[in-house]
Design brief:
Length: 61
């Protein structure tokens, strides 16, 4: 299990889930969207906001 740290952007909010995209990858590195339950994210997230992930926890930047 990888505990980060990683940087994400909230690409889209879809009901109880948010789609996150990594923003800290080097050019050319393959990226996969990550679907995360909103209950695991800060309550104040919005589309386009940036998140920091480390040790199984998300925080707004």
């Amino acid at each position: 299990m990888d505990f980060g740290p990683y940087e994400y952007k909230v690409e889209r909010i879809d009901g109880d889930y948010a789609v996150l995209v990594r923003t800290d990858l080097a050019p050319g590195e393959e990226q996969e969207d990550k679907l995360v339950a909103r209950a695991l994210l800060p309550a104040e997230i919005y589309e386009g906001c940036l998140l920091h992930y480390e040790c199984l926890s998300y925080e707004m930047k």
